[in-house]
Amino acid sequence: MDAQFWNMKWQKNQIGFHLPAVNPLLVKYFPVLELKEGARVFVPLCGKTLDIHWLLQRGMNVVGVELSQIAVEQLFSELALTPQITDVAPNMQCFQAKNLTIFVGDIFALSRVLVGSVQVIYDRAALVAFPPAMRAAYAEHLMDISGTAEQLLVTLEYDQSCIAGPPFSITQQDIQRYYGAEYAISCLENTSVTGGLKGGVPATENVWFLKPE
Ligand SMILES: C[S@@+](CC[C@H](N)C(=O)[O-])C[C@H]1O[C@@H](n2cnc3c(N)ncnc32)[C@H](O)[C@@H]1O
């Protein structure tokens, strides 16, 4: 899953991962985060998720990162915001308007200085977007650039031999392996995915709260 793979998905508008409504799991578990108005929420691999609209409406400051410029242009357009665009690093631009800052580029090229201080990470469809070989590096880098901020993390679990990812299946043991040394991990919910994944493969959507220890 390299940049070309994802850029092609956006170019061809093959964005089945993009939900047509705000994720009900975010709405349900947002109170667990106990965020005050103005808190900074980091949304890695944000696409143009409607969850960002919802977080902004709740008075949050949102910082995201996304490879695809198409996605980010659509995000700002759908929010009726005109971004100021600046070059902030080689192959990295920053789109900024009001309480929204989106870095356009590879998350692995993003530094802690650029991200700034964040209270929480909201990871929906980011960890699961990386194949197993890249996942530990993503988890390490995410902790590094966020100062190991607490996380609301949504993952999927299913029989990986039935279909190829993304999204990839992630087990509780995986979460423990990637994050167990730095966070206390609580599972908030396991829900069956209605109709299964891609043609009906039974799957569970898991919601995790990761609190730095
Ligand atoms: C599965 S989608 C999830 C999007 C969003 N979180 C959502 O819930 O709709 C993964 C997104 O991550 C972006 N992406 C993939 N690899 C990336 C990387 N290394 N750095 C930044 N963005 C990346 C893709 O372009 C895609 O929009």
UniProtKB/TrEMBL annotation:
Give start-end of the signal peptide: none
Q: What is its main location?
A: cytoplasm
Q: Which reaction does it catalyse?
A: S-adenosyl-L-methionine + a thiopurine = S-adenosyl-L-homocysteine + a thiopurine S-methylether
Please state where this protein is localized. Cytoplasm
| BP GO terms, sorted | methylation; response to metal ion
State the Gene Ontology terms under molecular function. thiopurine S-methyltransferase activity
Example of a GO cellular component annotation carried by this entry: cytoplasm
Gene3D superfamilies, sorted: Vaccinia Virus protein VP39
Which residues does the annotation say bind S-adenosyl-L-methionine?
Answer: 10, 45, 66, 124
Q: Which SUPFAM superfamilies match?
A: S-adenosyl-L-methionine-dependent methyltransferases
Enzyme Commission numbers on file: 2.1.1.67
Is Thylakoid one of the keywords UniProt gives this record?
no
The UniProt similarity line reads: Belongs to the class I-like SAM-binding methyltransferase superfamily. TPMT family.
Provide the protein name.
Answer: Thiopurine S-methyltransferase
From what organism does this protein derive?
Acetobacter oryzoeni
Q: What is the lineage of its organism?
A: Bacteria, Pseudomonadati, Pseudomonadota, Alphaproteobacteria, Acetobacterales
